[in-house]
Amino acid sequence: MERAPSGGQGLKRRRPNRIIDLDIKRSIGAISSMEYKRRTIINEINNVAYALHKTSLPAIYINPIRTGAQNYVQDDILAMEVDPIESKCLLAVSRYNSVAIYNVSPNVKIFDQMKRMTIPHDPIDNNGSPNSAHWLWDGTVFSVCTMDSVHFWDSTTCKIIETVKMRTKVLNHVMAAKKYSVNKYVAVTGIEGHVFMIDMLHGIVVMTMKNIEKKPIRAIHWHPTNELQYVTGNCNGNIYLWDIRFQRDFVFKFKNEDSFSVSTSHTYPVIGLRFYNDGNSVISVDNNGGIKTWEVSTGHLRPNHYESVPLCDLNKNHIFKDYQFAVTENLKEDIVFLPSKRGMRIFDIESGEHLPFSNDIPLPMNCATYDSKRFCVYGGSNDLIKLWTPEKKMTD
């Protein structure tokens, strides 16, 4: 009997690459193509800097009640997200009930509004504003959350195709639906501490996760690889891991390993959460700018210390939206992009070391979103779209 080749016949092995350390110009040996790509991306992000000549025109709201010069009001951008397919469109919602799609193609200098739509009036709160916006994984649909509803829009016609009315004031929402997801869920957080699951296929709420502390939940993030789990952060300062298979209870509360169960995750209300490190870790921010990182496997606080981020006035005072920041998620040495009172704070999560162009402009930033295809970051500064991109690309 003939023996099969030891490597398995027909199997194509990944060829290792040799890579040069770009800082000290020396070879660091043979590595896999995946590792080569990871290091290349990290090197690109390490040179991310503010692109001075890339911006949008001001987003102006025309007040129908006032006349003259007072008729025009600055329309602050509250949340944004890059389209998941081509990275050429940026979805953004602003304070005075508008949602817009910007052209952010690499060859444009001015990010023009391709479409701008008025979000239906919110009967619960005349002064209410949208709080979050997301693309569906294939870019065909986007969703916008207001104080009383979640609206689903057709991205081609820019018309609403479904509206789900909620029975409570809504603070945030996230999409769990991916290409191969079994359940096409959208998770919605409320002011009373509930989390509602909307089935996108039927446009109805199919389950409600029990409120633990009856405190508003502003921060929520779905696990990047496990569509059954997500984390929430509430105004009591606590962070919880949830599993949709167990509606009546949470998996565990994130806390210091040496603390008692009654101690809170943060001293102040949690306003922002993101998974990183392929979903194995969580980074959180409270409304005093405090930053912490956590292990998802145990719920324990990681032994990292970070300088507080100075929040802009909008993120300090707007209680009906989360603090939208961005992370790289899957580079092992992940980077975080934190909108601050002075530009974008950018640092390595593991070491806490700031990147060279962190906080490089004196502009208040409201929100941020990361483009994993072009390794750049978009930020909302008052009513303008700003860009941070690898330094060598800024002259392209």
Give structural attributes:
mainly beta, five-stranded mixed β-sheet, disordered N terminus, 396 residues
Whole-number average pLDDT?
A: 85
Report the sheet-strand fraction.
35-45%
- Given as residue ranges, the uncertain stretches (5+ residues, pLDDT < 50) are 1-18
Got a strand count? 31
| Main pleated sheet | 5 strands, mixed
What is the quaternary state of this protein? single chain
CA radius of gyration = 22 Å
Helix tally equals: 2
The shape is globular
In percent, how helical is the residue content? under 10%
**How are the strands of the biggest sheet laid out side by side?**
9-3-31-30-29
* Gap from first CA to last CA: 61 Å
Written description of the protein model:
The protein has 396 residues and is mainly beta. It has helices spanning 33-45, 313-317; strands at residues 17-21, 26-31, 48-56, 60-62, 72-74, 77-82, 89-94, 98-103, 110-111, 113-118, 132-135, 141-145, 149-154, 159-165, 170-175, 185-190, 195-199, 204-209, 217-222, 229-234, 239-243, 252-253, 270-276, 281-286, 291-295, 326-327, 335-339, 344-348, 367-371, 376-381, 384-390. The strands form nine sheets. A five-stranded mixed β-sheet has the order 9-3-31-30-29, with no helix packed on it. Strands 6-7-8-10 form a four-stranded antiparallel β-sheet, with no helix packed on it. A four-stranded antiparallel β-sheet has the order 11-12-13-14, with no helix packed on it. The radius of gyration is 22 Å and the shape is globular. It has two helices and 31 strands. Mean pLDDT is 85; it is low at 1-18. The N and C termini lie far apart (61 Å). Strand 12 and strand 13 form a beta hairpin.
